[in-house]
Amino acid sequence: MSEVEKPKYLEDMARYNPAYVGMYALNHADEKEQGSFLKGATRTLIDRLYDPKTRDLDILTKAALASEQGMQTMLHEALGQYEKASNQCTFANFYYSNAKAIDSIISKDKQEKFNAIVKKYGAKSIGSIKDSYKDAQLIKEGSDKSFTKEQKEKADKTIEELKSIVAIISQIDRASVEFSDDYKKLKQYAYQETLSQAVDATKV
Asked: Is 3 inside any structural domain?
């Protein structure tokens, strides 16, 4: 895909990806590592958002890292932008933008069928797939008084059709995070912070 053809939502996903990676890392970090990973996520995001050639990166970094609330706010604001872009992304572009991660986890005997899945659902946005699945679940779990038999049956069919697609999206999401340079960079920052704290706390 050329730069001319690239939709803006792909650019925004790449721009705000460190926030998504950061929240993933925080959700999987040990409680003792939360502070270090929060700082690592914030620093990785700052590196992406600000150009050191035109901005004073040191001042921006110190300001963002000054408080836990400031770091949380920055991550959540950027995460909102990432999710907005991600929901607009078509399944096909979601596949192409994560092709490297997908190729590393999909077996050769499944590639042909996976390509058929991409062809069938390629034009649908990630957001519409997830929303259709969630809406169907709400109808399925709702009371019989709230929904008709036909609505329940339609919801069952939607769930049956989309549950594996939602699972595929989830697995690609996870692989794209854990194999990404942003994730490696974040962990490097986090471990650097943890090691520095341990060194400072050691008496010699």
From this structure: no
